[in-house]
Every structure is written in C-alpha cells, then in structure tokens.
Amino acid sequence: MNAFILPLAIGAPQIILIVVVILLLFGGRKIPELMRGLGSGIKEFKDASKDDDKGAGSDDKNKVSGEN
C-alpha cells in the first residue's frame, strides 16, 4: 500500500516547481486575476451548497407532514 502512496507525496521542491511553471505560463500580472476568479467560484459553490441543504431539509419536513 505504501508503494502506491509514495509517488504521490508532494514536498517543497515539487510545490516550488509547480509555482515556477504557473508563473511561466500565466505571468505575474495574470495570477491575481486567476486567484480572484477561483475564490469567487469557490464562494458561489459554497453558497449554492448551503442553499441546497436548506431547501432539502424543508422539502423533507413537508413530505413527512404531508403523509400524516
């Protein structure tokens, strides 16, 4: 099992390499815009999942009360 996990281990050198590649691909000016878009997307996803949880709970209560 450890043989499968070992290649997936990400350390400091791998993170530095990923950051350098991202800088080369997008440039320093584009990264804040990308992160802003990513953050707003995550926020919208969390808000939608919270709204979905609230809506599902009220539907379940209506179904139970409707059966009685």
UniProtKB/TrEMBL annotation:
GO terms for molecular function: protein transmembrane transporter activity. It is a single-pass membrane protein. Residues 44-68 are annotated as: Disordered. It is found in: Cell membrane. It comes from the Bacteria. Keywords: Cell membrane, Membrane, Protein transport, Translocation, Transmembrane, Transmembrane helix, Transport. The keyword Cell membrane applies. The keyword Coiled coil does not apply. The chain crosses the membrane at residues 6-26. One of its GO terms (cellular component) is TAT protein transport complex. Its main location: membrane. GO terms for biological process: protein transport by the Tat complex. Part of the twin-arginine translocation (Tat) system that transports large folded proteins containing a characteristic twin-arginine motif in their signal peptide across membranes. TatA could form the protein-conducting channel of the Tat system. Belongs to the TatA/E family. NCBIfam families: tatAE (TIGR01411). Forms a complex with TatC. This is Sec-independent protein translocase protein TatA. It comes from Christiangramia oceanisediminis. The gene is tatA.
